[in-house]
Amino acid sequence: MPDEYNPEALPDLLPLYYKRLFPYGPYFKWLNYGGVPKHYFSHREFSFTLKDDVYIRYLSFTDQQDFEKELQKKCPHKIDLGAVYSHRPKDQKTIKSTAFLAQEKELVFDIDMTDYDDVRFCCSGADICRNCWPLMIMAVKILDRALREDFGFQHILWVYSGRRGIHCWVCDETARTLTAQGRSAIAEYLTLVKGGETVSRKVILPDKLHPSIRHAVDIISKYFLEYIVKKQDLLGDEEKWKKSVLAEDFATVGTNTSTRWAIVKQRLKSAKEKLDLYKYPYVKEEIMLQLCYPRLDINVSKGLNHLLKSPFCIHPKTGRVCVPMDPEKIDDFDPEQVPTVSGLLEELDKVDLVEDDKGKKFRDYKKTSLGRYLDIFDSVLKGLESSRKGKLIEQSDMKMEF
């Protein structure tokens, strides 16, 4: 079980974390993207949030050593990543605003559990539990499938935000070079749930169901009944359904969420047979999607200038590390079991110096429970490296043919 983390101890824990556990090598390898172009890392914007919410934007670093030195010096409570600019962000004040331009950035998605507060009844706000976490599992599965199969992206990094949400970084070159219009188009394509608190019908499907929506419904179907019955007891409380058109049926026939959902399906089936629903053929699907489809903060995805929390920083409230997640094993991911900064440092205190057969020392993070999350990160990096090598070979072959 994770240790009892004390937020007041964070200023004392961060120096040790940044000195011994932050994975500088893999992290630099990721953001350097093979060093082509050479300035890719040095033109990247970082922002630091320091103690007492002191916020510093437009930071940039020459190389891994420069980044490592500054991180250990400032010990930020939060790290955010921005775009790769035309100039070094730290020189921003000396450059004309018309010349200082955001050029590239990963295509990113931010999914926050608070956006589901109208459809979850176990928690609200920043709180999460195992009863509402299936919403994040469904979000990963739906978006990962769409990004890979509908758009052809291959190099996707999923990261737990440390508290109540998840982040997605699409790292393919074609994603990093997308225009704002291209990013907006993809984000709009992946957005189904629309409307604020005053809108009751937030999902409106067309007459012909798009294959991507059908795939999403298929994924939700695997979790839906258990989620609404066992996890949320969605129709168990009279307050949740007493204003519904089926309130009388629910009160007299239904006894719990399971039987009441069966009533909903039966009424929809009867209405279809009587042609009452010929204008709305997908009411059941709309209900399922409104309750469970990913709710994106679309502005995060649209803009090149928008910053997003970096992997491997520490959430100051929970102490949890923002760790990578494997989409293939997302059903097994438990946010409550994610290592905390204090727990990791306790692990280090308990382990002896580990050496492999060649006498080579392991990195400190490999000696702790953080190591398995680095394995997920490394698999993404290997995919990116393989893709770069393949592109170089292809370019070489084209030159030889020419």
Automatic annotation (TrEMBL):
Pfam families in the record: DNA_primase_S
Cofactor names: Mn(2+); Mg(2+)
Xref: SUPFAM superfamilies: Prim-pol domain
Top-level taxon of origin: Eukaryota
Alphabetic keyword roster: DNA replication, DNA-directed RNA polymerase, Metal-binding, Nucleotidyltransferase, Primosome, Transcription, Transferase, Zinc
An annotated GO BP: DNA replication initiation
The keyword Transcription belongs to this UniProt entry's keyword annotation: yes
GO molecular function annotations of the record: DNA-directed RNA polymerase activity; metal ion binding
EC number, as in UniProt: 2.7.7.-
Gene3D superfamilies from the UniProt entry: DNA primase, PRIM domain
Keyword Transcription on entry: yes
CDD domains in alphabetical order: AE_Prim_S (cd04860)
One annotated Gene Ontology cellular component of this protein: alpha DNA polymerase:primase complex
InterPro entries xref list: DNA_primase_S, DNA_primase_ssu_euk/arc
Family: Belongs to the eukaryotic-type primase small subunit family.
Name used for this protein in its record: DNA primase
